[in-house]
Design brief:
The protein has about 170 residues and is α+β, with helices and mostly antiparallel strands. The chain has five helices and four strands. Helix 1 packs across helix 5 and helix 3 packs across helix 5. It starts with a helix and ends with a helix.
């Protein structure tokens, strides 16, 4: 793992750990409702300042904390058109199975590839440091997975091209 990636992930880890200090907070607009304030945006005093942790312009993490929820949006590295197609399809595959992932959102925030929503209920049911570890591990492994898919795709394209050119 490169030094810049370690620093990037360490910054995301510390920021996310600080942002996950959540508490139960009922809606100030609708009685007996408890909406994630970062999603509903019903009261400005329940929202905190969003933080962007950026490794470069193509690899960013947006952390939007509020009093009872945190939304984490990731922009995944896409160096070329093949990687951009692979990222789009892989994220679509994951978001189609958002019910299996408790904190995964079905649609990402505009300008980002994937988003997670952690509510105070999630932090009560799960360990906070395990949630942070999951997001960090996801960030580490998604790059490796995309690179592996790209290598497989290039190898398969090379095989098809060789087979096609020798048959002709």
């Amino acid at each position: 793992m490169s030094n810049t990636l370690k620093n990037y992930l360490a910054a995301v880890r510390s920021t996310l750990t600080a942002a996950l200090c959540l508490q139960n907070h009922a809606s100030q607009v609708v009685e007996r409702h408890n909406y994630p304030e970062v999603e509903a945006r019903l009261s400005d005093e329940a929202l905190l300042n969003p933080v962007i942790v950026s490794r470069n312009e193509n690899e960013q993490c947006l952390i939007e904390p509020s009093i009872n929820s945190v939304r984490v949006s990731l922009k995944i590295k896409q160096a070329d058109e093949i990687e951009s197609i692979l990222v789009k399809q892989f994220m679509r595959f994951l978001m189609g199975r958002a019910d299996s992932f408790v904190i995964l959102r079905r649609k990402p925030i505009k300008g980002f590839d994937i988003s997670f929503l952690v509510t105070n209920k999630n932090t009560e049911d799960m360990l906070k440091h395990k949630l942070v570890d999951f997001v960090i591990q996801f960030m580490e492994e998604v790059d490796a997975e995309i690179n592996e898919m790209k290598l497989f795709l290039n190898g398969r394209a090379r095989f098809v091209a060789e087979h096609y050119l020798t048959a002709a």
